[in-house]
Write a structure and sequence with these properties.
mainly beta; eleven-stranded antiparallel sheet; 3 helices; 11 strands; globular
Length: about 240
């Protein structure tokens, strides 16, 4: 998304949808190629393709637009019951400088049934730069993480701690629509629910709200939640099977 934004100066990032075909490695360079499909006065569309070791890992479609005045306006309402970020349970598996709090005292690390397939999660990066695209990218960086744990919550014997060890989990597709400006240096509330799980897959959707209640983004995701094949040996937190 950030790479594609260089092809649309003066425009606002409005939508990104990506399909993740194969996993990559964080210890090797990525090549990102941007192809502009349309560049007009109002809309710019582009694809961004990530490659590594001459293999295509992911391709995303990105839409940018010129902001128009309101003809009509309404939005979802920030959910009641999230509490304050300070009341949330810290989630420590984060990049440096990132703060995440799981609302309502939910422990997503357990492998016991502990509630409906929903999660409320607070997120912020206190030192986020003053750059609209980077702030949107930071939002995306956490929007994909918690729909798999949400899908697992109603099921005994399954928990996110099993991912990549005894269960093969991963994101297959992910889409984000941006509705309003994003400030990742302030708390953002991710309200998400998994509406289906079965046949080794899970689907979920969510909405993102600023701390003052603005509806800033929406997202949806298709994921894998399946057992490893008996002869599959590449397991562990640094591996993922697709």
């Amino acid at each position: 998304m950030v790479a594609a934004a260089h092809s649309a100066p003066g425009k606002t990032t409005r939508f990104i949808s990506a399909v993740f075909d194969r996993p990559g490695r964080t210890n090797a360079p990525l090549e990102i190629a941007v192809d502009v499909i349309h560049s007009g006065r109002t809309l710019v569309s582009a694809t961004a393709t990530a490659r590594q070791d001459e293999k295509e890992l992911c391709r995303a479609s990105v839409l940018f637009d010129a902001v128009d005045e309101d003809v009509i306006r309404h939005s979802s309402v920030s959910p009641i019951g999230a509490g304050s970020p300070e009341e949330g349970r810290p989630w420590t598996t984060n990049a440096g400088g990132t703060l995440v709090r799981i609302a309502q005292g939910v422990d997503i690390g357990v492998a016991e049934k502990n509630g409906p397939p929903e999660l409320l999660v607070w997120f912020k990066v206190p030192n986020a730069p003053v750059d609209s695209v980077i702030n949107q990218a930071l939002l995306v960086s956490r929007s994909h993480l918690f729909l798999i744990p949400a899908a697992m919550r109603p099921h005994d014997g399954v928990g996110v701690g099993m991912s990549h060890d005894s269960l093969s989990t991963g994101v297959i597709t992910h889409s984000v629509s941006f509705h309003d400006s994003v400030d990742a240096s302030s708390w953002l509330l991710f309200a998400q629910e998994s509406t289906f799980a079965g046949s080794g897959r899970a689907y979920g959707r969510g909405e993102v709200f600023s701390e003052d209640g603005r509806h800033v983004a929406s997202f949806s995701q298709n994921s894998l939640i399946r057992r490893f094949a008996e002869n599959f040996t590449k397991r562990g937190k640094t591996q993922m099977a697709l």
